[in-house]
Specification:
The complex is a heterodimer of chains A (657) and B (283). In chain A, 25% of the residues lie in helices and 30% in strands. Chain A contains twelve helices and 33 strands. In chain A, strand 23 and strand 24 form a beta hairpin. Chain A is elongated, with a radius of gyration of 30 Å. In chain B, helix 1 crosses helix 8 and helix 6 crosses helix 7. Chain B has one domain. Helix content of chain B is 85%, strand content 0%. The longest helix of chain B has 43 residues. Chain B is globular, with a radius of gyration of 22 Å. Classes of the chains: A alpha+beta (657), B mainly alpha (283). Chains A and B meet through strand 24, helix 7, strand 33 and helix 12 of A and helix 2, helix 3, helix 4, helix 5 and helix 6 of B.
């Protein structure tokens, strides 16, 4: 591969079509790039066309083949790894199935590569799975070389939308083209030896890709409304009932698009970002709600993590028939999920919108390997989603914000982990499809979000914000792994707190990220013993006499608070002790021992004691045993039971005709 | 106007039947106390000396209830007990309705408690059959009015949930109005059974339908009005009780008294409906 060709590629990267460049300085290394010219056939449900792609060998290795993801082939049969793991089938009719087929493939010199292509199954040797394609190169790629591919392909979309596919005239086109995998050089993600990281498409898994440049021309019937993750360059009617739409996208990890004749479009702006919202007729009530949610997320993540670099973002609220595409992220295009008539106090649509937008950061910018470390994008993103929801919609009201009662987003996340029967089955280390007992969702989303909230409780909000700022600055537009995050946390905590938490925070991550233990602290009891003066028989001049209590002095109590650590996880916790005169003492317990007591000699008795009084240790599995009081307040329970019983009385009266 | 007479005389009959309503309230109160007392006791036991109740001091807290449910293994059992209690009281109310209808027929305030229970026992079997049959009719009507249009629209190619929701909303309103007819049927049936041969359930049901449609306008307007009042009342009660957040024992006691007074008034409203239909039946 010649240096001259590298130069041509460079020109391709930097000078976009019609001179439209999004970033004057590329945000990423742009190891891969794609120029596609495709047409949507709404009758055949296919997208077909040509693709010019390049891959730059940034490693020190001599690479002899290219690996490509052929995700749509997961829908080719019920024996694909995706459907074998799911236990289902793409459907019954021919149109239900999906596939991607390369018609022809040539390299830069015009050599035909079709005979060098071979499907491989690096994860499970399932020969029916055709989601990873290996193309042997005619000449090995030397370090610094650029490999050029000229491919003609057809993608048949599956009918039952699982993120991607069609339903009638609705199309959501994602993971749809032959996509070059990530070649990880030695050192990246702590790899000892360079190599392709290209996994098959699994049921419980998402994706992994390089930040790329995309130039995509899409031809489709002119009545279709289209949205994509690219910046619209031009839209031209072809005069034969079709139109050509040209997009350019820079430094994104995937290019997805959607088309449907009935989409309605709303637009808005937030600082430099133009927001485009596609939604179905009848959901006008969602427009302000969801645009507001995106703007809140833009503001919050911009303030606390780093700027949103792209000047554009498109998001889609799919119609019911496209609901299977809902709740998915492709950086500059993402899908929310709602339906008509969702009351305003129920914030599920906003939550999905905030979450999916957040993925622009956590895997869009910080492009972790979602196959291997799903907690990095899903867990971290869930943590930020909870913060955003509870910040903008009110503390304790991030999911339900009814004037009579509220439910916080963080609490719903906590409950899903702490009350899961499988919370100790595994830690956060398995690959996404290897989480045992179906714990992928609970572990990668909720457990990780819980321990991140707990980490925030321990090191403080400012410190964790700084951790993420550094994470963004150092690993943005790259591929971080768990150890990178741990290393940055250790460094930032050390810089901001010195040795307060020890030489590093590894003790935390070993128990949470890499541990299966639970966290449960308990106040076991309170004792208040009155100190008494001597009472007994003493010898005196008159003989043996009884000396009684001296009650003239002040009464002193020896008070003891007894604590227990019931779980395996050992975290530093605060203990708030309240005395009967209103005095309060805060103790800091390292939380390591199984038992711990605090004793006081004071004229007042202890009335209550609370471990973690501000509920910072979110992963504590039982808040109720965190405290002990000598004067239990039962008002809340009585009130709730009375209201429940009255409701039941009214209900039976209505039911009995 | 027939329905104004039903309203005024129905109310008079209800006032005269205050004793019967009081009996029903008392039985309901005692029955639900048997549920509430162990429920409260069990929760208190599970909480022990926890200070965690601070979480629900200002109202609902999902962490509190979720953590309580995880440590209080009895809660699922009590929930099932609550459902059983609802079923039990469905039967008990059918029983008590016999006495209530009989007392509403009486022109005297001195209706005897023994007569109340005697009539309840005498009418129970036929009231049970009639009520279950009308409940089945209501379920069937719901399927016909709400289910069939939704099904047809789906078969017809409209798979959009927004269209479905619109159809569901409209048919639900139609069903609400249609269900008043069934209430009239069951009330006329019960009035007939209380006044005639209590064993002839199907004849009574036939009469129920006949009476409903013979004087449809007057009967329906009456039922519509009384149902509107009841719905409005339940809405007010719901808002009132959910807004009350007492934090002191005195306030809690007041909440308890108020809730029971409001429930008693709901029983009065129900008796008013029965009394009105009894008036319509007798005229």
């Amino acid at each position: 591969m010649t240096r001259l060709f590298n130069f041509i590629i460079l020109i391709f990267i930097v000078t976009a079509s019609h001179g439209q460049v999004i970033f004057e300085t590329p945000m990423s290394d742009r190891i891969t790039g794609y120029k596609m010219d495709v047409e949507l056939d709404p009758t055949k449900k296919t997208v077909s066309g040509t693709m010019e792609a390049f891959w730059v060998n940034c490693s020190d290795d001599i690479v002899e083949d290219i690996r490509m993801h052929m995700y749509l082939n997961a829908f080719r049969s019920n024996k694909s790894t995706f459907f074998t793991e799911e236990g289902g089938s793409p459907g019954s009719g021919e149109s239900d199935f999906g596939w991607v087929e390369i018609i022809s493939a040539y390299d830069r010199k015009g050599y035909d590569l079709t005979n060098s292509m071979k499907y491989i199954q690096p994860d499970d040797n399932n020969s029916d799975d055709l989601t990873v394609l290996k193309i042997d190169l005619t000449e090995p790629a030397l370090p610094g070389d650029t490999v050029y591919l000229n491919i003609e392909f057809v993608s048949k979309l599956p009918s039952r939308l699982r993120r991607t596919g069609f339903n009638d005239d609705y199309f959501f086109v994602a993971q749809w083209f032959p996509k070059i995998a990530v070649y990880e050089p030695a050192g990246l993600r702590h790899r000892e030896k360079g190599g392709w990281n290209c996994h098959q498409f699994h049921n419980h898994s998402e994706f992994y890709a390089n930040h790329s440049v995309y130039e995509v021309n899409i031809t489709l019937p002119e009545e279709y409304v289209i949205g994509s993750g690219g910046l619209l360059i031009r839209e031209e009617l072809l005069g034969d009932g079709r139109k050509l739409v040209e997009y350019r996208a820079e430094d994104i990890v995937d290019f997805a698009w959607t088309a449907w004749p009935d989409y309605k479009v709303a637009t808005d702006e937030w600082n430099h970002v133009k927001i485009r919202f596609l939604y179905p007729p009848g959901r006008e009530d969602q427009v302000d709600r969801q645009l507001g949610a995106v703007k809140n997320a833009l503001e919050y993540l911009g303030q606390h993590v780093g700027p949103f670099p792209w000047p554009h973002v498109t998001f889609v609220d799919p119609p019911t028939k496209g609901a299977g595409a809902g709740g998915m992220e492709y950086t500059t295009i993402f899908t929310s999920a709602s339906s008509a008539g969702i009351p305003e106090f129920l914030l599920l649509p906003e939550m999905v919108t905030v979450h999916e937008f957040g993925h622009a950061y956590f895997m869009g910018i910080l492009a972790n390997n979602e196959f291997e470390e799903p907690w990095i994008d899903e867990g971290i993103n869930s943590y930020w989603e909870q913060r955003i929801m509870d910040h903008y919609w009110g503390p304790g009201k991030g999911i339900i914000n009814h004037k009579k009662f509220g439910v916080s987003d963080r609490s719903t996340g906590r409950i899903q982990y702490v009350h899961s029967g499988d919370r100790q089955v595994t830690d956060n280390r398995p690959f996404s499809w290897d989480y045992a007992h179906g714990t992928y969702g609970m572990m990668s989303y909720m457990k990780a979000a819980n321990w991140l909230s707990t980490l925030e409780g321990i090191i403080g909000e400012n410190t964790i914000n700084e951790v993420f700022r550094v994470f963004y600055n150092e690993w943005g537009f790259n591929h971080p792994d768990a150890q990178n995050f741990v290393d940055i946390t250790n460094r930032v905590v050390s810089e901001m707190h010195g040795n307060k938490f020890g030489p590093d925070m590894n003790w935390f991550f070993e128990q949470t990220l890499y541990g299966t233990g639970i966290c449960d602290y308990k106040v076991d009891g309170i004792l208040n013993n009155k100190e008494r003066s001597f009472k007994g028989i003493v010898k005196s001049d008159t003989g043996m006499v009884l000396r009684k209590d001296d009650t003239s002095g002040d009464t002193i109590y020896t008070s003891v608070v007894k604590l227990q650590r019931l779980g395996e996880v050992r975290l530093p916790v605060e203990l708030l002790i309240h005395f009967e005169n209103g005095d309060e003492i805060t103790e800091h317990w390292d939380g390591k021992a199984r038992y711990k007591s605090y004793s006081y000699e004071r004229p007042e008795r202890i009335t209550w004691a609370r471990i973690d009084p501000e509920y910072k240790i979110v992963m504590d599995v039982n808040y109720l045993n965190n405290s002990y009081t000598l004067e239990p307040d039962r008002t809340g329970v009585r009130k709730a039971v009375r209201k429940l019983v009255t409701m039941m009385q009214f209900m039976i009266q209505i039911l009995s005709l | 106007m027939k329905f104004t007479k039903a309203i005024s005389l129905g109310l008079t009959r209800t006032i005269r039947s205050a004793k019967s309503i009081l009996i029903i309230w008392l039985i309901t109160f005692l029955g639900f106390a048997l549920f509430a007392i162990p429920l409260k006791g069990s929760i208190f036991q599970a909480l022990g000396n926890s200070y965690g109740t601070e979480l629900i001091r200002d109202g609902f807290n999902i962490d509190f209830w979720a953590d309580l449910a995880s440590v209080a293994s009895f809660l699922p059992m009590i929930s099932r007990g609550g459902l059983f209690l609802l079923f039990l009281f469905f039967i008990i109310y059918i029983f008590l309705n016999g006495g209530l209808f009989d007392s509403l027929r009486s022109n005297s305030c001195s209706y005897r408690i023994s007569s109340f229970f005697g009539s309840s026992a005498k009418l129970f079997g036929s009231y049970l059959v009639a009520t279950l049959l009308v409940v089945l009719m209501i379920i069937f009507a719901a399927g016909l009015i709400i289910g069939v249009p939704v099904l047809i629209s789906r078969v017809g190619g409209s798979s959009d949930i927004d269209t479905m929701q619109a159809i569901y909303k409209i048919t639900r309103i139609i069903f609400l109005f249609a269900s008043l007819i069934f209430l009239l049927v069951i009330d006329y049936t019960r009035a007939w059974l209380a006044a005639n041969d209590h064993k002839r359930v199907f004849k009574a049901l036939g009469y129920g339908f006949k009476a409903t449609f013979t004087s449809f306008f007057g009967s329906y307007i009456f039922m519509l009005l009384i149902t509107a009042i009841q719905i409005l009342y339940v809405w007010i009660v719901t808002r009132l009780l959910s807004g009350m957040q007492p934090s002191a024992p005195g306030g809690l006691f007041l909440l308890f008294i108020l809730a029971q007074v409001l429930f008693f008034l709901k029983l009065v409203l129900r008796a008013w409906r029965y009394g009105g239909v009894t008036t319509l039946y007798e005229t």
